[in-house]
Amino acid sequence: MEFACGIGMLLIWLAGLLGWIVPLVIGLGWRRRNVPGFQAWTRFAAIWGGTALVLAAGIGVMLAVSLSGNRHGSYSPDKTSEFSAATFKGPTGNLKIPFSGEMHLKAECSTLGVMDFSTSNSTFVVPAGRITVKSLEVTARDKQNRKWMAQGNWFYSGEHKTNVVEVPAGGIKELAMGPPFRASIQVTYSPVSDSFRMKPLYSDSLGYNYKVCSDDRKGTVPGFELLDSENKLVMSGKFEFG
Q1: 31-86 pLDDT, tens per residue?
Q2: Which residues of the chain form beta strands (DSSP E)?
Q3: What is the pLDDT of residues 195-214, one digit of tens each?
Q4: Cα separations (Å) of 241 from 58, 186, 193, 211, 236?
Q5: Rounded alpha-carbon distances, angstroms, from residue 164 to 78, 157, 174
């Protein structure tokens, strides 16, 4: 039954692609016999044939793109899009980030699209070629064994973007993102309520901002002190999560 349906669909597709030949033959035959109305048949054949040509060209482009994508390697990512160097058949390289703890990277590869990568030794094995970092998550523990996580996301694609690198096949490309972070305070003043809001910011050496949090909030809230021009304490307090 399925075979018969397939044959029927193929015949319908061929009729739509080549059916313009019928009105063209009728129009040319009428023209040779000087039968009035042959122009309508030839115009109809021209419109039908042009439409069929556009559709055929579109199908050809889609097939070419599909075949081109398959030539980049025989790797098929699973539902989680986790990259596996063991099953990837194309050339790979190493992307090194100066942090020795657990890291998770989401990046767009020139051959596979957006993929997830993981490492615990500062070096990611990635497909060779252009790599665009979308997000980076690092994890570490302090002396009290509290787990800290920092995550940064980037969507910058300007002329001077620094989250795009070329990883050579069999080589190493270093990318100086991630820890150590530079802490700063963003102060916003509201003249309506005559108050100000302070927000801690954490950025890496490339200037990308990160969200930093802990799985144990007890005793992990950073504090602040405000000093005047003579370095005297004006006020102090603690930040809040949220």
Answers
A1: 777 777 767 767 776 777 677 677 767 776 666 655 444 443 434 443 447 888 88
A2: 92-96, 102-109, 113-119, 123-127, 129-141, 147-153, 164-167, 172-174, 182-190, 195-203, 209-214, 223-227, 233-238
A3: 778 788 888 888 888 888 88
A4: 54, 16, 22, 11, 17
A5: 24, 9, 11
